[in-house]
Recover the amino acids of this structure.
């Protein structure tokens, strides 16, 4: 009997070892001769073979175990599922396979009351995070819980995945979560007293990227934590000077992604990417001004050089008639008016700031004043009639007029100050002016 036990023990040990090292052949042989081994667990942590395969990213072994009818939601000592361990270790193949096998995304462990989504966010594995979110969208979880409730799921201490990602400086996860509907101002408190927001935790972690993302999604710099501190004070306390500079309520407000606008939520991925990039560029410019002369000036990726490059390229394409700085990349559906991503975005953000966030008025086309129902990316075509002499006068306007408007825009950087009612139908008939007299004077403030 004793011999039998030790023999079984050595089989177990052999199996765990083979699983850990991805030795599929040994695993297959052992499971064929001793099928019950699949239910064995390690002595202390109670890890099943499936846990070990998931944590080590052994996708072939994991598939074999699942085919061998291993329960995808088997629990270890801490009541963690193999999916949690795969998300924790960033083993995307295993995460996907487990989700495919129907692993439950809504399980909570007993260490911190966390889900697989918390672990993916905490450890910054954004591909795993995306896979879990996408599975949650189509799983029974979405039906029973609601997807947005899942995105904002709280752990035992009231932290959402966004809190954890912000605290751990995982800016990519912060971005993905915000895009998926994570509440930017969620507080860790559960029973009335105010806890920390993701912005407080990002200030504590000292990640400029996370702070930039959170501010761009409308995080409130004035919100206070349980000790009555705003995020600025938290950043100062932890000696994150550059973060503090951005969080200082005396610093200029960043552009905020106009997420509540219907036209924004219905953007196609290409247009969304363009506008997001424009928002980040605008906010980085603003940061440069805030941090200028402070000891925290950023090692910024030579933004002004990029601008110069753009301008030389622009001479061959269509310049935006609002700022005369960037190329037109966005077209308003129906009227066909075009502008650059930066101006499109400022148009949407401007409107958002002036209206209640609950029911924002959609912005109107600055050229023809018709309501914007949809934004599209312009398909770049090559025109034969483009002026090739290297000047920027490739629009349909007369050079003098075009130059005049450029001058008016000098000093306004790439902000929206230069918005005029100047319009053009690029790629269609000749340029048109909606209402020439109200040019320039009609600046939104
Ligand atoms: Zn523009
Ligand atoms: Zn228009």
């Amino acid at each position: 009997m004793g011999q039998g036990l030790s023999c079984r023990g050595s089989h177990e040990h052999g199996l765990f070892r083979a699983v850990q090292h991805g030795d599929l052949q040994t695993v297959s042989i052992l499971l064929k001769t001793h099928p019950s081994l699949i239910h064995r667990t390690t002595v202390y942590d109670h890890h099943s073979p499936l846990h070990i395969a998931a944590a080590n990213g052994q996708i072939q072994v994991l598939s074999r175990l699942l085919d061998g009818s291993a329960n995808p939601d088997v629990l270890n000592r801490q009541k963690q599922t193999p999916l949690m361990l795969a998300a924790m270790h960033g083993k995307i193949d295993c995460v996907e396979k487990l989700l495919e096998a129907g692993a439950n995304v809504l399980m909570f462990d007993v260490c911190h009351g966390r889900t697989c989504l918390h672990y993916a966010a905490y450890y910054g594995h954004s591909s795993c995070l995306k896979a879990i979110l996408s599975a949650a969208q189509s799983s029974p979880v979405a039906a029973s819980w609601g997807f947005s409730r899942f995105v904002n799921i709280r752990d035992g201490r009231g932290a959402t995945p966004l809190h954890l990602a912000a605290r751990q400086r995982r800016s990519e996860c912060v971005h993905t979560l915000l895009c998926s509907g994570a509440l930017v101002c969620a507080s860790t408190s559960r029973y009335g007293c105010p806890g920390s927001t993701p912005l407080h935790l990002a200030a504590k972690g000292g990640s400029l990227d996370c702070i930039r993302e959170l501010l761009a999604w409308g995080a409130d710099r004035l919100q206070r934590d349980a000790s009555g501190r705003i995020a600025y004070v938290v950043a100062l306390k932890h000696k994150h000077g550059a973060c503090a500079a951005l969080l200082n309520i005396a610093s200029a407000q960043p552009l905020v992604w106009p997420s509540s606008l219907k036209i924004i939520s219905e953007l196609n991925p290409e247009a969304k990417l363009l506008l997001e990039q424009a928002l980040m560029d605008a906010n980085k410019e603003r940061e440069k001004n805030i941090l200028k002369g402070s000891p925290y000036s950023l090692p910024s990726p030579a933004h002004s050089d990029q601008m110069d490059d753009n301008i030389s390229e622009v001479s061959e394409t269509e310049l935006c008639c609002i700022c005369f700085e960037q190329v037109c990349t966005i077209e308003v559906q129906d009227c066909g008016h075009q502008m650059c991503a930066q101006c499109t975005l400022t148009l949407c953000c401007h409107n958002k700031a002036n209206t209640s966030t609950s029911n924002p008025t959609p912005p109107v086309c600055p050229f023809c004043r018709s309501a914007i129902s949809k934004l599209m990316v312009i398909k770049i075509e090559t025109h034969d009639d483009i002026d090739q002499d290297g000047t920027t006068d490739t629009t349909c306007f007369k050079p003098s007029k075009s130059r005049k408007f450029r001058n008016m825009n000098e000093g306004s950087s790439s902000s929206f100050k230069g918005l005029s009612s100047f319009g053009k139908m690029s790629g269609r008939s000749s340029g048109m002016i909606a209402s020439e007299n109200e040019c320039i004077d009609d600046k939104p403030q």
